[in-house]
Design goal:
alpha+beta; two-stranded antiparallel ribbon; 5-stranded mixed beta sheet; elongated; 23% strand
């Protein structure tokens, strides 16, 4: 990404793949690839340096648009302060009802906008369902043929449900969005083992 600076201000941001005019001079696209940075700077063309100090994981935060500025001989693009996504559901209120904003199938207290907790718990449920589906045939066979379910399978399925419940509780108890992010953040210990506070569902099917 490039920026053209004239009289100390950014006047345009060419893509870097086409010729461009600066002042009375037409420059070829090769300026972007064949010229050195100092040569480009001499005519007022700068490579934009992006400062991602304030940029945060978009799963948990809404980042601002980038703002561009020229100073100290360079053009910098910076993010503003990111806003944490709502961790809890937003509900319809009496005021919403008074203002006629609630559709007929909804009422005060119903979910207006789902928060991260609701979405994450739904993901955990889907993951658990997918894992359990792989051994559902044992349950069907037991119902249809009275064939005993192997104890290893029963233990596995119980472990999935137990861990699912624990994960959902951890998500529910998270006090805010940073706390949710921490649950999902992987770290590696001195032994090279990578884990996250939330843990993971046991997905490996027992070998019988």
């Amino acid at each position: 990404m490039f920026a053209i600076v004239e009289s100390g201000s950014i006047t345009s941001m060419p893509r870097g793949n086409k010729s461009f005019k600066l002042g009375d001079t037409q420059y070829p696209a090769s300026v972007f690839t064949l010229w050195t940075e100092s040569e480009r700077n001499a005519i007022g063309l700068y490579t934009v340096e992006i400062d991602e100090t304030n940029k945060k994981n978009s799963k948990w935060y809404v980042n601002t648009n980038i703002t561009y500025a020229f100073g100290s001989g360079k053009v910098t693009g910076s993010y503003g302060t990111a806003t944490a996504k709502a961790h809890a559901d937003t509900l319809w209120t009496e005021q919403d009802k008074t203002d006629g904003l609630i559709s007929p199938e909804k009422d005060v207290g119903d979910v207006k906008v789902e928060g991260l907790k609701t979405k994450l718990i739904r993901e955990v449920k889907k993951q658990a369902e997918s894992i359990l589906n792989q051994t559902d045939w044992y349950i069907t066979r037991k119902a249809e043929k009275s064939t005993a379910i192997p104890s290893a399978i029963t233990t596995h399925r119980d472990a999935v449900r137990t861990k699912q419940a624990a994960m959902e509780t951890a998500i529910t108890n998270a006090s805010d969005t940073p706390a949710l992010e921490t649950l999902y953040t992987y770290t590696t210990d001195s032994d090279g083992v990578t884990t996250r506070p939330l843990g993971k569902l046991p997905s490996e099917i027992p070998t019988l």
